[in-house]
Design a protein that fits this description.
This protein has 3 helices and no strands. With 100 residues, the protein is mostly helical.
């Protein structure tokens, strides 16, 4: 069984990822305000990187905790990996857009 703390952190990571993406998107609306735009972008990237780091750490903790009974608790491992997968998909799509 996965500990409750790991479950909470998995959902908080998804929330942080969504907040970081939305903050990065809506900070583009304030691009004309020179002092505010870089601060919002820096906060957005900080939230995204924090979410990714905690997602990786939480995934490793969950895997170490449930490696004997992996099939039964696979859903929590997948929930914990969602921010990493989203970030890599967005990164691959961005690279493809830049190369075209």
């Amino acid at each position: 069984m996965v500990k409750k703390n790991f479950k909470i952190i998995a959902f908080l990571n998804i929330g942080l990822l969504i907040i970081g993406i939305l903050l990065g998107h809506y900070s583009e609306l304030y691009r004309i305000y020179k002092p505010l735009y870089p601060i919002l972008k820096m906060i957005s990237w900080g939230i995204l990187i924090t979410s990714l780091m905690w997602s990786l750490i939480n995934t490793l903790f969950i895997y170490h905790h449930i490696k004997n009974n992996l099939i039964k608790n696979l859903k929590w491992l997948l929930v914990s990996v969602i921010p990493l997968v989203c970030f890599f998909i967005i990164g691959i799509m961005t690279l493809m857009y830049l190369l075209i």
